[in-house]
Amino acid sequence: MTTPRSRFRLPTEEVLRAREELVLDHFRDEVAQDWDATLATFPHPHYELIAQMTVHDGDRDVRRYYADTRTAFPDQNHEIIAVRHAVDAVIVEFWLLGTQRGPLGAIPPTGSRHRTRMTAYFVFDEQENLVAERIYFDQLTILRQLIAGLDLRRPSGLITLGRVLLGALRAGRVAPDPRLTRTAPPILD
């Protein structure tokens, strides 16, 4: 039986350095689109996208998520702003960048580029396994930038705008994943 972690005591520097190295490898492998290496950073791949209230769980589901996002943004990249450590997580603030060349779910390609500030929590269990990447961002920031690149003086730009808005409305109808809505308050000392 393991003793629960104190929420006031950080792990050793050695543990923090190992976590950070794994997270930075994860970022590098995602940009390189080396999915085998990226997935190897988890014993069981698990992504939580809080803005969309969706979960991608397991190898097959996460690979589908990678394929979908890289179809939409084949040049997806990031710029790290800060890396912070918590008792059970590495927290990374970063800019996500990409040009929409393919559909983003129901949103058709706009050809526009976005640069969106995000925060990802890389959560570790008691055995120091990466168990989740939980990503926070504002979907409207991305959507606004994708629309801003459209030429609304041209009929094709107006048609694409209409399709983007319909796609965004359809995406908003997806029910939130209950694993993200059924939360319990923490037990505080």
Automatic annotation (TrEMBL):
InterPro entries membership: Cyclase_SnoaL-like, NTF2-like_dom_sf
Database matches in Pfam families: SnoaL (PF07366)
GO BP, sorted A to Z: polyketide metabolic process
Entry coiled-coil feature ranges: none
Superkingdom to which the source organism belongs: Bacteria
PANTHER family the UniProt entry points to: ESTER CYCLASE (PTHR38436:SF1), POLYKETIDE CYCLASE SNOAL-LIKE DOMAIN (PTHR38436)
Protein name (Swiss-Prot/TrEMBL): Ester cyclase
UniProt source species: Tsukamurella paurometabola (strain ATCC 8368 / DSM 20162 / CCUG 35730 / CIP 100753 / JCM 10117 / KCTC 9821 / NBRC 16120 / NCIMB 702349 / NCTC 13040) (Corynebacterium paurometabolum)
